[in-house]
Amino acid sequence: MMLISCDPLPRCDVYSFGVILWELSTLRQPWGGMNPMQVVGAVGFQHRRLDIPDNMDPAIADIIRKCWQTDPKLRPTFAEILAALKPLQKSVIGAQVPRPSASGKHEKAQSSRAVEDSAI
């Protein structure tokens, strides 16, 4: 979502990435029950942010908060976000994430290398 306080630059995309990361972490729809104009008012004018649950991984919560800085110049670059996410990749690899097979069914990854190749 583009707000008047942010030019169409990567730093606005960083804010949106923070929202997507929040969605993936909480499995909830952001700003549920609000129409788009209400979201613009809440975020763009009242500087409100989505609630970050206490049980969220602190490293993920920190990335999200940095992505949501009010001043776009204070937001991290995508290179900085990638550097912050890289250490978290090991925990995802260790979780044996299922991957699609040729038959269309999901199967557990046979090696961590296969997961690494498809990861960020």
Walkthrough of the structure:
The chain is mainly α and 120 residues long. It has a domain at 9-89: Orthogonal Bundle (Transferase(Phosphotransferase), domain 1), CATH 1.10.510.10. Helices cover 51% and strands 5% of the residues. The protein has five helices and two strands. Strands 1-2 form a two-stranded antiparallel ribbon. Residues 108-120 have low confidence and may be disordered.
Q: Name the shape in a single word.
A: globular
CATH class of the domain at 9-89: Mainly Alpha
Total strands: 2
N-to-C SSE series?
A: HHHHEEH
Helix content: 40-55%
How would you describe this structure in keywords?
120 residues; mainly alpha; Transferase(Phosphotransferase), domain 1; 5 helices; Kinase-like_dom_sf; ATP binding; Ser/Thr_Kinases-Pseudokinases; kinase
Quick structural gist:
This protein is mostly helical. Helices cover 51% and strands 5% of the residues.
List the helices and strands and how they pair.
Elements: H1 10-26, H2 36-45, H3 58-67, H4 78-94, E1 98-100, E2 106-108, H5 112-118
Antiparallel strand pairs: 1-2
Keywords: Kinase, Transferase
InterPro entries: Kinase-like_dom_sf (IPR011009), Prot_kinase_dom (IPR000719), Ser-Thr/Tyr_kinase_cat_dom (IPR001245), Ser/Thr_Kinases-Pseudokinases (IPR051681)
Domain Protein kinase: 1-89
